[in-house]
Design goal:
Helix content is 32%, strand content 35%. The protein is α+β, with helices and mostly antiparallel strands and 173 residues long. The longest helix is centred in the N-terminal third of the chain and has 21 residues.
Length: 173
């Protein structure tokens, strides 16, 4: 049992160090540059895009590593999401039970090739389209550049409920 206790203490210490290393300061510019989920859920995509680097890559949950639909560059991300807002019938989004897990990747991820700070985030997303409510469990992984801007945004969720509520696959349009 002593070995298990020692392992648990070491794991807790490691997690505290990771969290402290990834935490933004409570004030100053870096605190304002963290991902703004409130802006995203309020459909204020201009404010949300302000947290991204100009060369951000945004990946939708369809396909696999080489076949996922992606948007390259902040302008493309902003254009797509603003178009989606006006054409999808979305009325509202709200996130529930939101959890962020900060990580410093010291070894390049084989999928992304990236190292450095990232946040693994999961939450429930309630979307309302034309009166139809869609509840999704979502996972998002965001990588950050040295300026603390999001430079990769990977989404993971089952799109079936959205396709049924909207009657269309916006990724095919």
């Amino acid at each position: 049992m002593k070995s298990l206790d020692s392992f648990m203490k070491q794991t807790a210490l490691t997690l505290c160090v990771i969290a402290a290393a990834c935490a933004a300061p409570a004030e100053g510019p870096a605190a304002e540059e963290n991902p703004d989920y409130d802006a995203w859920t309020q459909l204020d995509f201009d404010a949300w895009a302000a947290t991204m680097s100009d060369d951000v890559e945004f990946y939708f949950p369809d396909g696999d590593a080489g076949t996922r639909t992606s948007l390259i560059g902040k302008a493309a991300v902003l254009d797509w999401w603003n178009n989606w807002k006006t054409t999808s019938g979305i009325q509202s989004m709200s996130y529930l039970n939101h959890v962020d897990i900060p990580v410093i990747a010291k070894v390049a991820n084989p999928y992304t090739g990236l190292t450095g700070p990232m946040v693994i985030s999961y939450f429930s997303n309630e979307l309302v389209y034309g009166g139809a409510t869609v509840n999704l469990r979502m996972n998002v992984v965001m990588y950050f550049d040295p300026a603390e801007r999001i430079n990769r945004f990977y989404t993971y969720y089952d799109r079936t409920g959205i396709l049924e509520a909207t009657g269309t696959n916006v990724l095919n349009e």
